[in-house]
Design the sequence.
């Protein structure tokens, strides 16, 4: 039996996403995939067990067989990829160090930095287009169509910039919490 759960996690919410997936597994539902830009999770009925879910973020999809072998050697099962996120799980261990892919502060901080860099890759083109459109708007400011297009795009950019600031702050807290003193 399968079920689909619609839930949104932003770029900086990967820790919450890991907890959500572990809670589902504990309730007897293991993740088998995701749909619709990652807003819809597909779960399959399983025995309720304590599993740890971990996500790894890889820029530019530069992974090879050694990458997966390293995780497999440590007992992690790779089971899904969505955009730049790789999903792993394993049965919870008594040894706390074995329950995390990134079990040292520097590795956790580096992962958050990679996610933060990707945020700028998304935001920068939007801002460039916005400033280009604003120049075009000044030249065509009397056109109703341009006013409508510019207003809609301005609202979208404001929302995306707001979400980006939230993401940046959250990732910055993760980085600072994992930096050596």
Sequence:
């Amino acid at each position: 039996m399968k079920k689909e759960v619609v839930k949104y996690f932003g770029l900086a919410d990967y820790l919450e996403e890991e907890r959500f997936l572990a809670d589902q597994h504990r309730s007897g539902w293991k993740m088998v995939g995701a749909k619709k830009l990652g807003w819809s999770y597909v779960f399959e009925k399983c025995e309720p067990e304590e599993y740890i879910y971990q996500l790894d973020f890889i820029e530019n999809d530069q992974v090879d067989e050694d990458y997966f072998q390293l995780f497999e050697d440590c007992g992690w099962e790779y089971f899904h990829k969505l955009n730049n996120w790789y999903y792993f799980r394993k049965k919870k261990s008594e040894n706390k160090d074995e329950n995390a892919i990134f079990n040292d502060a520097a590795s956790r901080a580096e992962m958050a930095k990679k996610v933060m860099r990707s945020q700028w890759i998304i935001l920068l083109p939007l801002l460039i287009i916005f400033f280009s459109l604003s120049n075009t708007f000044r030249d065509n400011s009397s056109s109703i169509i341009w006013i409508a297009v510019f207003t809609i795009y301005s609202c979208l950019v404001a929302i995306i910039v707001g979400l980006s600031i939230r993401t940046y702050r959250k990732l910055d807290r993760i980085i600072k919490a994992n930096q050596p003193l």
